[in-house]
Amino acid sequence: MAIVFYISGHGFGHASRDVEIINHLSSDQPVVIRSSVDPGLLKQTLRVPWELRPGPCDTGIVQATSIRHDDPATVRAARDFYATFDERVEAERQRLADVNVELIVGDIPPLAFAVAAALDVPSVAIGNFTWDWIYETHPGFLPDHRDVLALIRDCYRRVDLALELPFSGGFEIFSRIVRLPLVARQAGRSRAETRAHFGLPPDGRIALLSFGGYGLPTLDLSTLDCSDDWTIVTTDRVMRDGRALPHVHVLPEGSFVGSGFRYEDLVAAVDVVVTKPGYGIVAECISTGTALVYTSRGEFREYGVLVDAMPRYLRTAFISQEDLFAGRWRGALERVVALPPPPERMATDGAREAARQLETVLASAR
Q1: Is the dihedral of CA 40, 41, 46, 50 positive or negative?
Q2: N or C, fewer C-beta in 10 Å, the chain?
Q3: 324-343: pLDDT as tens digits
Q4: Contacts of 51 (CB under 8 A, 6+ apart)
Q5: Residue 35 burial (CB count, 10 A)
């Protein structure tokens, strides 16, 4: 018997938080993952038996770069995906024919809940937003594609239990909701250990450039106005050319594999993360107490929710895309590290509570 997780491939935040939840499940509970997420992320971080059945289970937002969306392509992708939705549900049902499915969890593809209904098994939604909530204000969806939003909402209404994370929107669609603390990856290594392992200055000020799978390949780090007293660390996923600049440490993506260190250890070891706001990186900065400098990311409804909430739990400063690409970083970096501690603290043990909720649903279904 297995739990099947349908995980959106949009960004890393969905998969990274689900990894934490899965790791808190009973170790003898097999897990099947349906997602287009990078398998390397799962291999590095999962500690329980799991199987990946790769492929997209929603369309999310089509990104031209890490900080720019392709709005027409986003609309086309969603329109085409949901135009053949009944066939997709049947294909999923057949794809899972060899699995004794006890529970389907979705973060937060509508497909998950239609498949659960087809298999007559309970379903649980986990997330901080729903796709209909995102799409209803996204350029190009309304008024011409109301049918897409209606189909998505119909799927969400089939959910047995919704686990609502902080910084949320759209959860009024669900009939039964449990609110969770923040699900955040927790650092397991000290700042000194992590800096030593990756060859970073033990005492100097360090900023981590974190822009996910697309990176910022056109960013020229040789022009930074802070290179005399700030070290910039990033992975080759972000800076692909790997130029040997004295103030830049480019870590190979594979440097985490088998090392005993995880990305959240790196977040905890630096002074500032430079990024675009997304649930995953914001959650990790809250859990580690690391300051965050953020830039805009295009039309995306979650952005406003995060930007409004972040100053309560994080030291944050904004940098415009113009200043980011021109290398004018010093002002934002100096401003954010000079801020006092944030006024509020947020619990970050949501993964444990989410796992408990899932196991309760399982016990009730048996």
Answers
A1: negative
A2: C
A3: 999 999 999 999 999 999 99
A4: 30, 31, 32, 33
A5: 25
Chain mean pLDDT for the chain: 93
Digit-coded pLDDT (tens) for 297-311 = 878 899 999 999 999
Q: Cite the DSSP H helix spans in the chain.
A: 13-23, 39-45, 71-83, 85-95, 110-119, 131-135, 146-156, 191-197, 263-269, 279-288, 301-313, 321-326, 330-337, 350-365
- Is the whole-model pTM more than 0.85? yes
Q: What count of other Cβ atoms lies within 10 Å of the Cβ of residue 247?
A: 16
Among 186-200, 209-223, 290-304, which is the least confidently predicted range?
A: 209-223
Which residues neighbour 190 within 8 Å (Cβ) at sequence distance 6 or greater? none
What are residue 272's DSSP bridge partners? 207, 291
Residue tagged 């802070």 (tokens): 226
- In angstroms, rounded to a whole number, what is the distance separating the alpha carbons of residues 224 and 101? 53
Cβ(65)–Cβ(238) under 8 Å? no
Query: Per DSSP, which regions of 180-242 are E strands?
Result: 205-210, 230-235
